[in-house]
Amino acid sequence: MTIILGIDPGSRITGYGLIKETNRTIEYIDSGCIRTSPEGELSHKLLQIYDGICQLMDRHSPTEVAIEQVFMHQNPSSALKLGHARGVAMVAAASHRIKINEYSARAIKQAVVGYGAADKEQVSHMVVHLLMLNKAPQKDAADALAIAICHSHMRNGLSALSGTRGFSRRRRIR
Questions:
Q1: Where in the sequence is the domain holding 82, given as residue range(s)?
Q2: Cystine design at 65: which of 10, 93, 118, 162 (Cβ 3.0–4.6 Å)?
Q3: Where, in this chain's numbering, is Mg(2+) 2 bound (predicted)?
């Protein structure tokens, strides 16, 4: 059994998603968002992200962590803030001695939807379908679950073109 924590970093909202993989079967555990204070110092926001990830690590004891790679952003200030948020999320996982796996947005979409240029609605729809959820999670949480699903596919040696073949789903979450 493997518990995978997917992280969608952001300086204001960091999404997280946890799935359990057993014998190539994926099952939803938990998801949500770590929201930072809208005002205040960047260092305080980063500490909130760090503390939130550490609490998740302590509560769920994931065996693997996956995080989205930084993409080039038009606004340099936003890119730097995103990089800081991503960095503290990685340090939180690394402080628990967990290896961090990184995936590009295109690779995540390809692994989950089968199309690397899929939009957020398509990704969210497939997350609901693959994890048999009754409703879509919050946007950032859905992205984090997609990151965890991508890692599950990649760690099992599935190519991006194979989609979800070979995986089965557990019971529907109520």
A1: 2-163
A2: 93
A3: 68
